[in-house]
Amino acid sequence: MPRRRSGFSPALAMVVGLSFVVVAGLSKASSAMGPPAIVIWIAAIVGAVVVLKGPLGEALMRSIADHDRDPDAMAQIDPALLQEIDDLRAQMGELQERVDFTERILARVQEERTLQSGGNK
């Protein structure tokens, strides 16, 4: 039986909790230091961006994205169903092209009628 995952993501909870701690500490430093604390805020933001852009951030985002995904889900999908979905997508694309063509024809007819009625006045 596949493992059932809850809606709780430990990685996301850790990031949110750590963010609260950092913001609380920075706000405390800001109230004690005054305007020079702006440099500390900038350094903290740049540091967070650098860390989250690196391998640690990628791993964290992958963990969050894959949390609710069942690894065996794609193996359980019937190939005939996937083919039917592809066929429906193709049909929808064709219908969209037909609607676009019809809209262009109707716009052209409307424009011609407008030009003809304007010329008779």
What does this molecule look like?
This protein has 121 residues and is mainly alpha-helical. It folds into two domains: 8-68, no CATH class; 76-121. The protein has five helices and no strands. It is flat.
- Classify the oligomer: single chain
Structural class: mainly alpha
Query: Overall 3D geometry?
Result: flat
Q: Indicate the mean pLDDT.
A: 80
Which range does the strand content fall in?
A: under 5%
Q: What is the tally of beta strands?
A: 0
Write down the secondary-structure element order: HHHHH
CA gyration radius, whole angstroms: 29 Å
How many strands, what sense, and barrel or not for the largest sheet?
Answer: none
How many structural units, i.e. domains?
2
> How many H/I helices?
5
Give unreliable regions as ranges. none
- The percentage helix is over 70%
Measure the end-to-end span: 79 Å
Could you list some keywords that capture this structure?
121 residues; mainly alpha; 2 domains; 81% helix
Quick synopsis:
The protein has 121 residues and is an all-alpha fold. It is 81% helix and 0% strand.
